[in-house]
Amino acid sequence: MKEQKTRDYYFDNFKAILILFVVLGHFLAPLQNKYHIVDVTVTYIYFFHMPAFVFVCGYFSKKNDWVKLVKTLLIPYVAFQVIEAFLVAYVKQEPRVFRMVYPKFSLWFLLALFIWRLVINELSRVKGLFVWAMMFALAAGFESSINSYLALSRTIVFFPFFVAGYQFNKEKFLALCEKWKGRLVGSVVLTGFGIACYYVVYRLPLSYLTYKAGYGKHAYGDKTVFIRLITIMISFVLIAAIAAVVPRKKHWFSYIGERTMTVYLLHSQVYLFLLHGTSIYDFWEKPYFVLAVVAFSVGLVWLLSQKPFDFFMKTLMSAPLECFIKGEEDGRYQDPLCKGQPEV
Predict the structure, then answer these.
(1) Is CB count within 10 Å lower at the N or C end of the chain?
(2) Radius of gyration of the chain (CA)
(3) Which of 303, 261, 256 is nearest to 7 (CA)?
(4) Confidence class for position 330, pLDDT limits 50, 70, 90
């Protein structure tokens, strides 16, 4: 009898934790410059949430079928570009120029992931790929034409994280953690950086961490290359620290890690509606309201990870393109953020 494969709950837990911070970071961002603790928290989150997500995606990108990439990444990108354009135009009651080549809000990640997965198998043959990726990430800032067009700036700058994930050896890393008390070291690193953020790092504008544009858009001009190098290095340290403390076994929240794409795409619509369609962020005049945002973010992650929303995403990502391209019928959906996970 064939033995049934089990999921890799380590990465399910990893992704579940990350998606919570992604949602929390987005909903807290409009409260910046109102409360010190919010400035600290948002800066802290932005140092690792998307770099770590890109890292995890790289790990699960060993096999890449371009047809499935179109289904699971490009089609949702186009669909949600249209949805977000109409949503923002409707709630703001003002005409907006719709351009498919400029990703809206968080949709840059889908386009970048599509590009990375298309090219990684070929690029993986290049010796010293990670070093080359770092060099391009730093050099890209000097060219002003590399910006949000087709998410080129982020695609290039976040690529080292993708390469690192692609080359990541989980077994060796976890063995090293056991040998050197990795969970303790990771906890100390995360706590220490939190303290650093509280007193110093929170002053760093988020624009330095989103990598949307070149150095000319920043106050330090071309000298921003050194800031970019430092922020990327810090992000890698934080990813390693988080990877060391992530639970290895199945937990009650592990299932969320199977549905991160659903939460990632749908929470953006809720955020944009609340930000542009309501005046809710104008009423946060009490510090304890920040706790309400945290509670709302946690609740929203739980809600959007439920089966009805997951079914919606499965339907969207299961267009039978193979029937037209390969003459096959294999429309099974799999979350691109857990590609390679065995079915249970």
Answers:
(1) N
(2) 20
(3) 256
(4) very low
